[in-house]
Specification:
Keywords: Signal. By secondary structure, this protein is mostly helical. Helices cover about 70% and strands about 0% of the residues. Helix 1 (about 1-15) runs antiparallel to helix 6 (about 80-105), helix 4 (about 35-45) crosses helix 6 and helix 5 crosses helix 6 (about 80-105). The longest helix has 23 residues, at about 80-105. The radius of gyration is 16 Å and the shape is globular. It starts with a helix and ends with a helix.
């Protein structure tokens, strides 16, 4: 269970375009702020595998409508529309997953550190499946920080 949760969180983090992830501001907050909490929860769950294709597609259409409004409002170039949607989707998913990780009393920063994510990090490409080595690096980082993995698996 923990491995699946970690893999989902890391994939959501990895989906953030490097330039957008390093920047903040109203433009990057627009779509995320405009999505209702219940829709955010549904998107997060869908990105972690819940629901069927039709329900995920409906959620993505709702998000696309919101991101389109933000693209227009902030003058985002046509060539960046897909990246903006992907960024918004990844950010909503990451926030949901961080919340899920927090429910297990685990800090999400350990994942970022273990895989060297962040503005000054290597930010490895995890657009495909994570390797067993990457997952184990995260698990080991949690163990090294004092987390009892067996108890986490029981709680999950």
């Amino acid at each position: 269970m923990l491995k699946g949760l970690i893999a989902s969180a890391v994939l959501a983090i990895a989906a953030l375009p490097a330039g957008a992830a390093a920047q903040e501001g109203e433009k990057f907050d627009c779509a995320v702020s405009a999505v209702a909490a219940d829709i955010k929860a549904s998107i997060g769950a869908a990105m972690a595998g819940a629901g069927d294709d039709a329900s995920r597609e409906a959620l993505f259409k709702q998000l696309a409508t919101i991101t389109e409004g933000c693209v227009t409002k902030h003058g985002i170039a046509e060539a960046q529309k897909t990246a903006y949607f992907d960024y918004s989707l990844a950010r909503i998913s990451r926030e949901w997953l961080v919340g899920d990780i927090a429910k297990l009393n685990l800090p999400s920063a350990i994942v970022d550190k273990a895989l060297d994510f962040g503005p000054a990090g290597a930010n490895p490409d995890l657009s495909s499946d994570m390797t067993e080595d990457q997952i184990m690096a995260i698990v080991q980082a949690y163990i090294d920080s004092g987390v009892d993995i067996e108890k986490v698996d029981e709680a999950a």
